[in-house]
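Module 6 notes. Inverse folding takes a fixed backbone as the condition and produces residue identities as the prediction. Think of it as a translation problem where the source language is geometry and the target language is the twenty amino acids. Below is one complete input and output pair. Work through it position by position during the lab.
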């Protein structure tokens, strides 16, 4: 008989949000794999429970090496409980590798549902919740961050991101540049904690606010792109999108193709708009040529 892998959600702030089954699983598991064993100790003390099984660390640095060990434990019949610092395992946290390996080995995987910063922020944002996508953390490097944002510039579903308080101002500024300063968003800070705050407004406004300094755990929720038909996207907007992609390092041909696909217009229309803008830029205020090539 193989064992069972249990993914358990942990509080994202208020320890009273811990699901009742969490204490039972902590007490009964043969192995508890924790992202941070010190945080686990504080959690078990708050819950008044002592793990009877072996406690091991399972974090980004040792995830690849420890996964095979835990799978062997599972194959041998052990009940393995996986917990992270906050929220559900494998959602921007360690866990995916272990789940995939356990499934491949034929091990049963179940969960103790618990708090989720993604769903909590989404519910509090005041933005549409019928369709959304979770984008996790954006790249730290500015160029890579802009590229990732451009990839979802026309996404109509509500977007949810995690971000560090040290980078949230740069991220919001980049979002304002790519999505537009007026695109609605909500910055959710310290959810379920004493100083919980939800700041709502346009991305430009939020970027200015964040520039003054933001602390705590951050989740950003951004309104999806407006549902615009091809006829509503003017030539200037098409050119702007091509230039934005070119500035990020894309070749013009690829940028034109990508913009055309996103906008739902023929590539020839985008090409003609780019050529027209280039020709207009080569003329002076009176329409005269600035000079020969």
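Target side of the pair, the amino acids:
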């Amino acid at each position: 008989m193989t064992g069972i892998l249990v993914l358990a959600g942990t509080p994202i702030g208020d320890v009273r949000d811990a699901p009742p089954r969490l204490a039972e699983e902590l007490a009964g598991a043969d192995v508890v794999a924790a992202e941070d064993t010190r945080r686990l100790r504080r959690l078990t003390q708050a819950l008044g429970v002592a793990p009877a099984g072996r406690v091991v660390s399972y974090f980004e640095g040792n995830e690849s090496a420890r996964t095979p060990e835990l799978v062997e434990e599972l194959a041998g019949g052990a009940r393995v409980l996986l917990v992270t610092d906050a929220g559900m395992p494998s959602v921007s946290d360690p866990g995916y590798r272990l789940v995939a390996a356990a499934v491949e080995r034929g091990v049963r995987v179940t969960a103790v549902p618990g708090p989720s910063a993604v769903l909590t922020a989404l519910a509090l944002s005041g933005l549409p919740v019928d369709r959304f996508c979770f984008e996790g953390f954006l790249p730290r490097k500015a160029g890579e961050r802009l590229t990732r944002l451009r990839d979802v510039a026309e996404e109509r579903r509500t977007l949810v991101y995690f971000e560090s308080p040290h980078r949230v101002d740069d991220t919001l500024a980049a979002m304002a540049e790519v999505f537009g300063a007026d695109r609605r968003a909500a910055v959710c800070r310290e959810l379920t904690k004493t100083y919980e705050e939800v700041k709502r407004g346009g991305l430009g406004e939020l970027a200015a606010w964040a520039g003054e300094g933001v602390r705590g755990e951050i989740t950003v929720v951004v309104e999806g792109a407006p549902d615009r038909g091809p006829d509503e996207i003017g030539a200037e907007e098409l050119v702007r999108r091509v230039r934005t992609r070119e500035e990020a390092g894309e070749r013009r041909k690829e940028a034109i193709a990508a913009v055309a696909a996103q906008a739902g217009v023929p590539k020839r229309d985008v090409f003609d708009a780019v050529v027209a803008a280039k020709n207009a830029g080569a003329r002076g205020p009176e329409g005269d040529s600035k000079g020969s090539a």
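Reference fact for the lab report: The mean pLDDT is 91.
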